[in-house]
Amino acid sequence: MYVLQKYKGHCDDIYKMVHFDGYLYSVGDDGIMIKWNIKNKTSGLIDKILILDSEPIYITAGKFNNEIDNNLYSANIDSNIIKWKNNKEQVFIRSEKVISYISFIKGYLYSGDSHGIITKWNSKGENISIFVNLSDNINRFLRIAKIKRITQ
Known about the structure:
Blueprint: E1 14-20, E2 23-28, E3 32-37, E4 45-52, E5 57-62, E6 71-76, E7 80-85, E8 88-94, E9 99-105, E10 108-113, E11 118-121, E12 127-131, H1 135-151
Antiparallel strand pairs: 1-2, 2-3, 3-4, 5-6, 6-7, 7-8, 9-10, 10-11, 11-12
């Protein structure tokens, strides 16, 4: 539990920072997302602590192809991707897998999960592409290549 009056910033590794809507947002291993007021020239001050959770969280900002405004999104191991509007959270996607990373690329939201699968999401929260984990096949190929190299 944190005493918010004395809270100065993150108390563990910072995973990602995003500039969004004139503020800097940071997330880290302490499970906290901080909205920093960077308009102050002397030092950044905490504007708001948006999440208190015990698990790592991830953050990205961007917009879908059919949207005008950028939005802020976060995810953590509860398998939800959250869309933030006016400092209030709205569940955007409920995934069946633990989300381990999120990012906007060319107008689509991508998530990586705990099973090594990357999913491409549209603005309605529907998955439109899934990139399957091929690590078993790759590992098998590498083992065969190593055996062939050793025996030659």
